[in-house]
Amino acid sequence: MMTKEKIDKVIVVEGRDDTTNLKRFYELDTYETGGSSIDATDIERLKVLQERRGLVVFTDPDFQGERIRKIIMQAIPEAQHAFLKREEARPKGKGSLGVEHARYEDLQKALGHLTGGKLVSPTVTQADLITFGLILRPDSRQRREYLCEELRIGYANGKQVLKRLNMFGICVKQIEEIMKGYK
């Protein structure tokens, strides 16, 4: 019998199957959004949970998961985030991407690298994004995809990337090191 690790913060997931998979490996509480239907009532509850216990948004790496993440991010910017890579969330057979398909090793990578919880002073600037070619270049999208994948912070477009890098406390030196590997 494996000893389950305890996670004190409330993990925000999309559905029951996500909860079931997480509870196989962790002792934790989840808040299920019920798929894509997140409303004002959910946001109010999540604000209270953030105040009392702290939140970790752990949605599927697909369009709906990102949509839910953005809604929560806007309403509760201090909430933490955990991400799975798309290939880590693929089902063995047919079906859509989801936290419910992730293996323990991949869940550990995602939940073991949680950052945030304390406000960090922004260190990355718009000028840094230009320097690393993350905006204003024909291949900027590919560069951002590479960087975000390596940092495990979920894809961010040109507008989101600055905010997300600073939210996760990423420094210019880290970006520089990662971008050396970009081909």
From TrEMBL:
Protein name as it appears in the record: Ribonuclease M5
Catalytic activity: Endonucleolytic cleavage of RNA, removing 21 and 42 nucleotides, respectively, from the 5'- and 3'-termini of a 5S-rRNA precursor
Primary location group: cytoplasm
Keyword terms, alphabetized: Cytoplasm, Endonuclease, Hydrolase, Magnesium, Metal-binding, Nuclease, Ribosome biogenesis, RNA-binding, rRNA processing, rRNA-binding
Organism: Lactococcus ileimucosae
Toprim domain: residues covered: 8-91
Function: Required for correct processing of both the 5' and 3' ends of 5S rRNA precursor. Cleaves both sides of a double-stranded region yielding mature 5S rRNA in one step.
Pfam families to which the protein is assigned, alphabetical: DUF4093, Toprim
Location relative to the cell: Cytoplasm
PANTHER family, A to Z: RIBONUCLEASE M5
UniProt keyword annotation of Hydrolase present: yes
One MF term in the entry's GO annotations: ribonuclease M5 activity
Superkingdom of the source species: Bacteria
EC number: 3.1.26.8
Residues passing through the membrane, by range: none
SUPFAM superfamilies reported for this sequence: Toprim domain
Family, similarity comment: Belongs to the ribonuclease M5 family.
